[in-house]
Design a protein that fits this description.
Blueprint lengths: L1 H85 L9 E6 L5 E3 L2 E10 L5 E3 L4 E5 L5 E2 L2 E4 L13 E3 L4 E9 L5 E10 L7 E10 L2 E4 L11
Parallel strand pairs: 7-12
Antiparallel strand pairs: 1-3, 2-3, 3-9, 4-8, 5-6, 5-10, 9-12, 10-11
Pfam families: DUF4232
Protein name: DUF4232 domain-containing protein
Keywords: Signal
Length: 229
Amino acid sequence: MGVVMSHHILNRRVRKAGVAALIAAASAVALTACGSNDSSSDAKGDSSSHASSSAKSSQSDTSIHNQAGQSDKQATALGSGSDKAQATAECQPGTLRATLDSAGTSQAGMNHRGTFLRVKNTGDQTCAISGYAGLALEGAGHTAIKTTARHGSTYFATDPGSHPITLGPGKSAWADLVWTTTGASTAHAKYLQISPTGSNSHSTVAFGEDLDNGTLSLTAWSSKPPINS
């Protein structure tokens, strides 16, 4: 009876040992599996992190390039603005003084008479003038005379055409002024209004001439007295 009990006890111990062994083995497998999953998770995490960093770096590089491009465009725009700012401004009527000047040259022949218009920059800034002057004849007492101004070449000078003339302080531009004296519908002028830019601002100079039909011919402004040789 005692021997039988000993066998039973021994069997129970063997069974318990087997169960413990099975539990230990299962735990080891579980731990291995968990370790494998953690490792895979870390690898994925590292890969994702690197990819994210690369993407951010690429975006950052793109942003830098874009900003650089925008800066270049802004610099170009500023450069263009600077070039425009450096362009010579048009002469203001108030800084210009117009006179009649023969420039030491006689213009007379075949019932034609002529002289030069001279406009001087009296300001302290360089400016530009172009085109044709505005003209108006006046009689005694500054009464208005109907005036016709013809633009182009005159009997004595070839028209240089409208083009900008740069005038530094104290510098002058010139235009040829010519009329005929055949006695046809003679206008008895005493004064001449000269508007250098064609505006309402003008100089009034003495002009005691008899001329046909109140008609004047003039060339565009030039940097020197225009006269055919």
